[in-house]
Write a structure and sequence with these properties.
- By secondary structure, this protein is an all-alpha fold.
- The protein has 12 helices and no strands.
- The N and C termini lie far apart (about 45 Å).
C-alpha cells in the first residue's frame, strides 16, 4: 500500500456499483449514424474497436488484483467495476457485426487492438516477487490513466447536445450515453485502487504518458481505417484539422478541453471526483432505453 498522501474526493458521492443488463436494437441504425457527417460518426465508432479488447483486459488485470485489496469497501467497488466493464465490452462487441453487415468490416483493425492488449500488455512469464508485482502495478496504473479519459469522454457525451440537434441515431446515442454514464459513475475506482496498491507519482506520470500516446495513436489510426474502408464513395479522409473543427462545433470533444484534462490528472491534488457529476450519470441511467430506464 502506498505511503504517498492520498488526494481526497471533492465530495462523498459513493454509490453501489452494479452491472446493468442492456439491450440495443441495431437494425435501424445506418452506417452514417450522424446525418451528413461520416467523419464524426467514424471517429466515435473507434470506441467499438478499442473498448471490447481494452475492457476485457481491465477485467483480467483486476481479477488478479482482487486478492491484494485490504479495504473491504474498495473491494466491493472493484467487483462492481469489473461487472460494468464486462458489460461494456459485450455491448460494443455487438455493434461490430452490424457494421460488417453495412459493408464495413472492422476485423483487420480489431486484430491489431487484440494483439496490443493480449500480448503487449498481457501477462508475462516473470519470477514471483518484485518483477511480477512491478508489471501488475504498471498495468493497474495504466488502467487508472485510461479511466481518466473514459470519465472525460463519458462526461462529454452526456452533455453533447449538438449530437441530438443534428439528428444522430438515438440508439447509438443511448449506447454511448449509457456507457458514458457508467464511466462517470465509477470514475474514482481505478484511481483509488492505484492509490491503495501503489500511488507512486512517478509511476502515475509514466503510465499516463504511455496511455495517452497509445490512445492518441490508436484513435487516429482507427478513424483513418474507418474512413478509408467506408463503402460509400467520396466520404473524404480523416485528419487532425477535421477533428479540431468537429470539436469546435461541439460534435466531438474540443482540443482545448482535452489538453486541459492533462494537467488535472498530473496534479498531485487530482481526484477523479473532479470529473463529471454522479447525479447526472445516475439520472441518465434511470432513463436510458437500452438499460431499461425508458421502459
Amino acid at each position: 500500500m502506498s505511503n504517498t498522501p492520498q488526494p481526497a474526493p471533492v465530495a462523498e458521492e459513493r454509490i453501489e456499483l452494479k452491472a446493468r443488463s442492456v439491450s440495443f436494437a441495431w437494425e435501424n441504425t445506418p452506417l452514417h449514424w450522424i446525418p451528413g457527417d461520416p467523419f464524426t460518426g467514424h471517429t466515435i465508432n473507434v470506441l467499438h474497436l478499442l473498448l471490447p479488447a481494452g475492457e476485457r483486459w481491465f477485467v483480467h488485470v483486476y481479477k488478479q488484483v482482487l486478492p491484494l485489496i485490504t479495504d473491504d469497501r474498495l473491494r466491493e467497488d472493484v467487483i462492481g467495476f469489473i461487472g460494468q466493464e464486462a458489460m461494456h465490452s459485450a455491448a460494443h462487441d455487438d455493434v461490430l457485426p452490424h457494421l460488417k453487415k453495412l459493408g464495413l468490416d472492422p476485423t483487420p483493425y480489431t486484430a491489431q487492438v487484440d494483439w496490443l492488449f493480449e500480448k503487449l500488455l498481457g501477462d508475462r512469464t516473470l519470477p514471483p516477487g518484485r518483477a511480477r508485482r512491478w508489471w501488475l502495478m504498471e498495468r493497474v496504473a495504466t488502467i487508472a490513466a485510461i479511466e481518466h479519459y473514459t470519465a472525460f469522454l463519458g462526461n462529454w457525451i452526456l452533455n453533447a447536445e449538438t449530437l441530438d440537434r443534428c439528428g444522430a441515431d438515438p440508439t447509438m446515442l443511448d449506447l454511448l450515453r449509457w456507457h458514458g454514464a457508467e464511466e462517470v459513475e465509477h470514475r474514482s475506482v481505478a484511481f483509488e485502487l492505484f492509490l491503495h496498491l501503489d500511488g507512486g507519482y512517478r509511476r502515475r506520470v509514466r503510465t499516463w504518458a504511455t496511455a495517452f500516446t497509445a490512445l492518441a495513436f490508436l484513435w487516429q489510426r482507427g478513424a483513418r481505417f474507418f474512413m478509408a474502408n467506408d463503402p460509400t464513395p467520396s466520404v473524404g479522409r480523416a485528419s487532425l484539422t477535421a477533428f479540431y473543427r468537429a470539436g469546435r462545433a461541439g460534435m466531438l470533444p474540443s482540443t482545448p478541453a482535452m489538453l486541459k484534462s492533462v494537467p488535472r490528472y498530473l496534479s498531485r491534488d487530482y481526484h477523479p471526483s473532479q470529473e463529471g457529476s454522479t447525479a447526472q450519470a445516475v439520472a441518465y441511467l434511470a432513463s436510458s432505453p437500452g438499460a431499461g430506464g425508458g421502459r
